[in-house]
Design a protein that fits this description.
Blueprint: H1 38-59, H2 69-72, E1 80-81, H3 91-101, H4 113-123, H5 136-145, H6 151-167, H7 170-180, E2 182-184, E3 187-188, H8 190-198, H9 207-215, H10 230-243
Parallel strand pairs: 1-3
Antiparallel strand pairs: 2-3
Helix pairs in contact: 3-9, 3-10, 5-6, 5-7, 9-10
């Protein structure tokens, strides 16, 4: 029986506990930090890319974009650009771009399947120039974040289109599109275009001006708003008809541009996803400052009457007729007695 150990406060009197080194348990060696595996590195890269894409899209849901990818790539520097909210854009301008570029904009989810099928059938003919079917949503994604041309860009564009449709919504997509679309070399956004071409804000645009701006969207660096050619005038008349302001003689089908002016499906903002353009005889040229329709009660000009025969010898000349005004004076209402 072991002797009892009395408790004490003196450390020197306490027995020393000794452990046989052979019976001591071995401690595991500390692990060195292992390097990242390729799988974890790829996963982290994907997360960073997703965050890099989502953060700007979420921010642009409320914030106006300071610039766009296409503005940064513009050959004309500096660009003309001024953001305006949707409330400062005339309603005819909103209707004009939807009528010209994407008449199913409010119904589809970012892609017009019917227009894609029609474009595929049209492009099967080797004699046809390639035609696209981009919607306003696709054009907004491309103009805001991407670059022209290439199948890789089209794939990224499709993914971005899905995101902005879900995050922004239709009204915001149309608002951003109108603010970043190119309406001429170095002229971006409807406010800069309205001030440059018509000397007024975007809120004061009338239907004809809005239709002319929308008419050049497929190829704004070639077609002119200020000096429209025959095709731009015909397309303006067609857009006016689609908006409900049709004029007599306006084309019922969207006129197709000449082959030399056809925008490339990869490099231009062509999209009229409303329907595949059908060749039609262009409407007569419309002066840029003249209204699209002439007044219905305009009377045709009449030739002046032939001069009267001189009187015979010894006869008195006939009395001169009373002068008749060319147009009757407007009737003035008599005030009530």
């Amino acid at each position: 029986m072991n002797p009892r150990i009395e408790p004490t406060l003196d450390p020197s009197a306490a027995p020393v506990l000794r452990i046989d080194p052979e019976l001591r348990m071995a401690r595991p060696a500390p692990r060195e930090p292992a390097g990242d595996s390729p799988l974890s590195w790829i996963f982290g890269l994907l997360l960073a890319l997703i965050a890099l894409v989502l953060l700007p899209i979420v921010g642009l849901r409320w914030l106006p974009p300071p610039t766009s990818s296409y503005m940064l790539q513009s050959p004309v520097k500096p660009v003309q650009y001024r953001w305006v909210p949707a409330a400062s854009i005339a309603e005819p301008m909103r209707r004009a771009v939807v009528a010209a570029e994407d008449q199913k904009f409010w119904k589809h989810n970012g892609f017009d399947i019917d227009a894609i099928h029609k474009a595929e059938q049209y492009n099967r003919d080797p004699q046809h120039r390639r035609r696209g079917a981009s919607t306003i949503s696709q054009q907004t994604a491309k103009n805001m974040f991407l670059w022209p041309g290439g199948y890789v860009r089209k794939g990224i564009e499709a993914a971005l289109t899905v995101l902005i449709e879900k995050i922004w919504g239709k009204d915001r997509i149309l608002e951003i599109y109108l603010n970043i679309a190119e309406f001429g070399p170095g002229i971006y956004g409807v406010e800069a275009a309205a001030q440059n071409y018509f000397g007024k804000p975007a809120s004061a645009l009338i239907p004809e001006e809005a239709a002319r701006l929308a008419a050049v969207l497929p190829n704004p660096r070639h077609w002119s708003v200020r000096d429209p050619g025959a095709y731009v005038q015909a397309r303006t008349a067609w857009i006016m008809g689609q908006m409900g302001y049709g004029a007599p003689g306006a084309p019922q089908e969207e006129p197709e541009p000449p082959a030399s002016e056809m925008p490339d499906a990869d490099d231009a903002d062509e999209a009229p996803a409303a329907a595949a353009p059908v060749a039609a005889a262009p409407a007569p040229p419309i002066p840029p400052t003249a209204p699209l329709s002439a007044p219905a009660d305009a009377a045709p000009s009449q030739a002046p009457p032939p001069p009267a025969a001189p009187p015979a010898q010894g006869e008195n000349p006939p009395p001169a007729p009373a002068a008749v005004p060319e147009t009757p004076p407007p009737a003035t209402a008599q005030p009530p007695q």
